[in-house]
Amino acid sequence: MSQIAVRLGEDELRSLDAAVAEGAFGSRAEAVRAGIRLLERTLRETRVADSYRAAYAAVPLTADETRVLDAAVAVAGDALS
């Protein structure tokens, strides 16, 4: 495992230490690794969403597909209410 040096602002360090003190993480390093995993997941999800947007822009939905999608969104919205 590699080791790096990171400079944090006082507020960031307080937040990091508070998370460790509250027991959310066992150490600062564990908290930082969790943050990096979250960043990786967010970037991966963004890439997937961008790919879907590009694909739908390249091949737009038909009128029938749009009506079905609109109906599904309406049903889902009603279910969440």
Major sheet description? none
* Shape descriptor: elongated
Question: How is the quaternary structure best described?
Answer: single chain
Query: How many domains would you count in the coordinates?
Result: 1
Radius of gyration over alpha carbons? 21 Å
Mean pLDDT score: 93
Q: What structural class do helix, strand and pairing data support?
A: mainly alpha
Describe this structure in words.
The chain has 81 residues and is an all-alpha fold. The chain has one domain (10-80). 75% of the residues lie in helices and 0% in strands.
Supply the key terms:
elongated; 3 helices; mainly alpha; 81 residues; 75% helix
In short:
This protein is mainly alpha-helical and 81 residues long. It has helices at 10-21, 28-58, 63-80.
Topology:
Layout: H1 10-21, H2 28-58, H3 63-80
